[in-house]
Amino acid sequence: MIVKRMHEMGVRSEHAYMAAFTSIGLTVAAWVTSLKAEPGTGLARADRWGLFVGEWAPTFFGLGLALSHYEQQDGTLTASVHEFRERREAS
Hints:
The protein is an all-alpha fold. Helix content is 84%, strand content 0%. The chain has 5 helices and no strands.
């Protein structure tokens, strides 16, 4: 199982979520850079670059969800998640 292997390698759900948010930022950066660096090619080329990088985010979010689910089953949730649950249950 890929998710198990990733977890064993030290990849956690937080890493996948961070990669997803980073790819969203890179999408905007790629679009703006392409728009300014290649003014003759127009908006269409900038849109293609932005969409290319933007398609990574859903994949990373999906991996984050899969890893989070595995961590819940495995019992290796991060301390911050455990603390959140304890505070919620104490209320």
